[in-house]
Amino acid sequence: MPQKSFIPVLRELARAYQEFESFSASHIRTLGLTPSQFDIVATLGNTTGMSFKELGEKTLITKGTLTGVVDRLEAKSLVRRVASPSDGRSQTVQLTRKGEALFARIFPAHLEHVAQAFTAFSQADLDATATTLQRLRETLFAAGNK
After folding, report:
1. Which CATH number fits domain 7-117: 3.40.50.1100, 3.40.50.300, 1.10.10.10, 1.10.3720.10?
2. Which of 62, 68, 116, 145 has the fewest Cβ atoms nearer than 10 Å?
């Protein structure tokens, strides 16, 4: 069977994602967090908190893993669980003051770290890449919802 023309694109997309994750994770570990912990702190930053469901959707961390990561962040006094104001049966995860201070310190530092990888690209390159990736995402979404 001849190779499909999109396979090299898929391969490069996966490789680019893996390289980004490795580059990002190496810096996150220097901040004293795991990538999943950073993801939760970054997602909760500048919010009043989120339900476990919402946090899972925004971080793409599975429910079983999410509970353990939140437990470890809670043990570090970076997050707290509070009863949901709209549904007493569920909980909202919020950053503590210590968690908010950590977010304020590490999020800008991590953005600066990640920005280093993009200095070789012009704004036109970045815009074109964003447009192409958005189109790919929308096409995959539409194909999956037929």
Report:
1. 1.10.10.10
2. 145
